[in-house]
Amino acid sequence: MQAKRVTFGGGIVPYLLLAPQLAITIIFFLWPAGQALYTSLFAEDAFGLSRQFVGLANFVALFEDPSYRSSFAITVVFSASVAAISLGLGLLFALAADKVGRKAMVYQTLLIWPYAVAPAVAAILWWFMFDPSVGVVARGLRAIGIYWNHHLNGTDALIMVILAASWKQVSYNFLFFLAGLQAIPRTLVEAAALDGAGPWLRFRKIVWPLLAPTTFFLLVVNIVYAFFDTFGIIHATTGGGPGQSTTILVYKVFKDGFESLNLGASAAQSVVLLVIVIGLTALQFRHIERKVHY
Amino acid sequence: MVESGRKLTFAAHAALILGVAAMVLPVWLAFVASTHPGTDFLTGRIGFLPGAALIANYKEALFTGSSVSGFPPVGPMLWNSFVMAMAIAIGKIAISLLSAFAICYFRFPFRVTAFWLIFITLMLPVEVRILPTFEVVANLGMLNSYSGLAIPLIASATATFLFRQVFMTIPDELTEAARIDGAGPLRFFWSILMPLSRTNIAALFVILFIYGWNQYLWPLLVTTDQSYYTIVMGIQRLAAAAAEADPVWHLVMTTTILAMLPPVVVVIAMQRLFVKGLVETEK
């Protein structure tokens, strides 16, 4: 990693400059992460009086636990749906905005603000619209014979949280797709049009391939969002229920640790999440690499 | 020019208008709900048009709270959210400016190590280390305090990388000139680097303010005292009461509108800075 060609001597100065950042990193990030790793290898008795080294037994127990496996499956369905819906709609709106040309800025203003809404707040909005007794949408659905009840029906609850999570994320994807589209040279598209390529063919052969890096980057960002930033969506509304139907992994690690006080299992879950984040960050690395030049 | 394609342009407008409607609808319904008295919810009279209780509801939510479910007023929660968001935004920017300065403008042992230590924080979101981080904060006596709400969140690899990028584009001739004129490192930082990074700082501030305001899990963990609740996490307590069929839906929706208003206003009012910040930080 390069530094500037012209530098200051400094002695102790650079260490002082770095001290606040490094202190917070070590105290609140590295030390707790180390603790999670360490605890995940031990079993504690019910009173927390003694602990015993058990190796990977916590992990084995975790993956043999049907409730953890179902939570894993729910998380995959949830994340894939959120990524698909919010990327699909983001791309659709970006293509449309790119098409309308100069008026795109007006639409941009009208479409980007949901980014500022907290996931938990977005969830409450959808929770209310679909509420079986007071929600307008639930009432409308009932009129056409669909009895929506996310309090009792697990599928309804999962659909509700997926919609809420996607709603908030569309604006982010829209913004990046629009920037990506506007970076595509007009001349390329015009040349293809002169050669007689219609809009669909131009999209498939020119726009989509040139947009691929943006799409890839957004895919990773959306998966990270769906995995980790959606805790508030679940906690503020369904509380993981009904039953286990909306217990995604980040919610489960919280619930097992804070409510059931199952420390070994919670730590093992933390470590599994950690591995997932490292994997996703490594994927994202290609993107960061361009910016950081080591 | 590409063919004008009237039909396609029309379809594009139609899709965008539908999209805007889908974005606005949930918020409009929440706003409508926040203007109806609590009793309207029991009779199912809430539709698409506002009611007459706008002022009464916002007054009740801000200053009285709900006596039925023992929920405190949200006025102080708005203040707590504001303090937390400002502390996180300013804190992250300050310590990241300093560390980016150290990494760019000095050569010293362990420079690359420091860089990697900062880099690792990208891979350690709160969700991954919930319990042990809570324990650390509890042991330091920082539960139920502003410092506990803000300080553990202000380490930032993203901001450090961003400022490093900015500094790398600043010509070395400026540094040389400053040194010849006898400026020390801190003078150079304050009088040259800071003014040159002004727009980047502003753009990042917008993003980080929203990030701080919207924190949920962290305030939930470190606050048990109602006087330190932030509004985004406070809603959950109220929504839980509404789900138990207490007649507080009007307060839930009023609080929801209040919780999203500040960050949404920031995004709309500072749209250009917001877009710049978002694109620059793209993790």
Automatic annotation (TrEMBL), chain A:
Signal sequence residues: none
Origin, by domain of life? Bacteria
Enumerate the CDD domains for this protein: TM_PBP2 (cd06261)
Q: What SUPFAM superfamilies does UniProt report for this protein, alphabetically?
A: MetI-like
Transmembrane portions of the chain: 12-31, 72-97, 109-129, 206-228, 263-283
Name any Gene Ontology BP term: transmembrane transport
Q: How does it sit in the membrane?
A: Multi-pass membrane protein
Q: Where in the cell is it found?
A: Cell inner membrane; Cell membrane
Question: Domain ABC transmembrane type-1 spans what residues?
Answer: 72-284
Q: Name one GO cellular component term.
A: plasma membrane
Protein task: Part of the ABC transporter complex UgpBAEC involved in sn-glycerol-3-phosphate (G3P) import. Probably responsible for the translocation of the substrate across the membrane.
How it assembles, according to the record, is: The complex is composed of two ATP-binding proteins (UgpC), two transmembrane proteins (UgpA and UgpE) and a solute-binding protein (UgpB).
State the name under which the record lists this protein. sn-glycerol-3-phosphate transport system permease protein UgpA
Where does this protein come from, organism-wise? Chelatococcus daeguensis
Q: What is the lineage of its organism?
A: Bacteria, Pseudomonadati, Pseudomonadota, Alphaproteobacteria, Hyphomicrobiales
Automatic annotation (TrEMBL), chain B:
Compartments (UniProt record): Cell inner membrane; Cell membrane
Which cellular component, as a GO term, is one annotated location?
plasma membrane
Gene3D superfamilies per the UniProt record, alphabetical = MetI-like
Report the CDD domains cross-referenced here. Answer: TM_PBP2 (cd06261)
Question: How does the record describe its quaternary structure?
Answer: The complex is composed of two ATP-binding proteins (UgpC), two transmembrane proteins (UgpA and UgpE) and a solute-binding protein (UgpB).
Function, please?
Answer: Part of the ABC transporter complex UgpBAEC involved in sn-glycerol-3-phosphate (G3P) import. Probably responsible for the translocation of the substrate across the membrane.
Q: What is this protein called?
A: sn-glycerol-3-phosphate transport system permease protein UgpE
- Report the source organism: Chelatococcus daeguensis
